Amino acid sequence: MKLLTPATQTPLAASVVTIGTFDGVHLGHRNLLEHAKRRGDALGIPSVAITFNPHPATIVRGGTAPALINSFEERLALFEELGVDYCYLVEFDLARSQELASDFVKGTLVGDLGAKVVIVGPDFRFGSKRAGNVDLLQEMAGDCGFVVESDLLVKLVGEIAASVGKVLPELQDEGEVVVSSTLIRRLISLGSVELAHRLLGRDFYIVGLVTSGDGRGGSELGYPTANVSYQDNRVLPVDGVYAGWVQYQQSRYMAAVSVGTRPTYYPKEGNRLIEAFLLDFDGDLYGREIQVGFTHFLRPQKTFSNSKELVDQIELDVEDVKVKQR
Ligand SMILES: Cc1cc2nc3c(=O)[nH]c(=O)nc-3n(C[C@H](O)[C@H](O)[C@H](O)COP(=O)(O)O)c2cc1C
Ligand SMILES: Nc1ncnc2c1ncn2[C@@H]1O[C@H](COP(=O)(O)OP(=O)(O)OP(=O)(O)O)[C@@H](O)[C@H]1O
C-alpha cells in the first residue's frame, strides 16, 4: 500500500475511493474497504482509502475528541492487511474543517484521485458543518463522472445484538446493532473485549514500545511484565486483568495482561499501566515493539495486603489464561 498526501501525490487518473476516519477498522469499515478493493480489481484501477488524521473531532470539537481504538500507524497496518492499494491521508486542520463539501468532492475526489466509484456508509458526513452527505455525492456524481455506492451498512442481529444489549441496556430492545467506532469504544472501555472482538472482526490490541516499570515483577514476584507504552488519546479497557496475547517479531505468546495502577503498591495514585506477563517466554523486551491483544476479561484489579497474596492470585490468573486460550 502506498501512502499519499495532498502535498506529495501526483494525481491518480482513475480510482475507486472509500472515505472515513475508520477508527478501529471494524466490520463496517472492512466491508467498505474490501468492496473498494474488489471494485478496483474488477475495473483494473486502484482502490484508495481516504482517511483523516488527527481525528476530525479533535479540531471540530476542541478538547472533546473521543479516545481512539487505534493509533494512526495501526490503522494504516489494518488497511494494508485488507489489500487497499493507496491510503490518501488528509491531514486534518482548521482549514480542512472549513472546506466546503462540494470543494472536497471537486478537489480531492475528482482532482487528486480521479474517482470513478465512491463507496461510503449511508450516514457518512463530510465537509464544513458536516453538510456533505450521500445526497450531495449523488447530486454531483453525474457531472463529476463517478457513481456512488452507499448500501453496505453492517448491522448485527440475534445473539450478538442481545449480548451487546446486556452490556448497554439502552440498546436492549433494539434487536440489532449498527457496528460503529463509538459503540466499540464503549465496549472496550467497559472491559467487554470479547464483544469488541465480534464488532471489530479481530481482537482489540495496542502496539507500543516496552518501557521499564519498578523492576519488582521479575525479581520480587517471579512474574516479569512487559509494560507497553501507549498514547494518551487511546481508549483503554477498564482496569482489570485480562487473558490475551503478545506478538513479538514473528512469535505470538499467551499473556496475562494487567491494566491498572498497581493499587497494592500505589494505594493513592499510580500511573495507569498496561503490563503483560508472557507465558513461555524468557528474554529481554525493553525498548522493543510489541503488540498486546485482549481476548477475555478475567477479574477487576484488587488491593492485596502483601506481595505473596498478589503472587498467589497471579498464579490463578495464569491458569485462567491457559483455559481461555485453549
Ligand atoms: C496477571 C497480573 C495480575 C495483576 N493483578 C494485580 C492486582 O490485582 N493488583 C495489583 O496491585 N497489581 C496487579 N498486578 C500488577 C503488579 O502489581 C505489577 O506487575 C508488579 O507490581 C510489578 O510491577 P513493575 O512492572 O513496575 O515492576 C498484576 C500483574 C499481572 C501480570
Ligand atoms: N456499520 C457500518 N457499515 C457500513 N459502513 C459503515 C459502518 N459504520 C461506518 N461506516 C462507514 O465507514 C466510513 C467511515 O466511517 P467513520 O470513520 O465515521 O466510522 P463510524 O464507525 O461511523 O465512526 P463513529 O462511530 O466515530 O461515527 C464512512 O463512510 C461510514 O459511513
From TrEMBL:
Pfam families: FAD_syn (PF06574), Flavokinase (PF01687). InterPro entries: Cyt_trans-like (IPR004821), FAD_synthase (IPR015864), Riboflavin_kinase (IPR023468), Riboflavin_kinase_bac (IPR002606), Riboflavin_kinase_bac/euk (IPR015865), Riboflavin_kinase_dom_sf (IPR023465), Rossmann-like_a/b/a_fold (IPR014729). The keyword Transferase applies. Its EC number is 2.7.1.26, 2.7.7.2. NCBIfam families: cyt_tran_rel, PRK05627.1-3, ribF. Belongs to the ribF family. This is Riboflavin biosynthesis protein. It comes from Acidithrix ferrooxidans. The lineage of its organism: Bacteria, Bacillati, Actinomycetota, Acidimicrobiia, Acidimicrobiales.
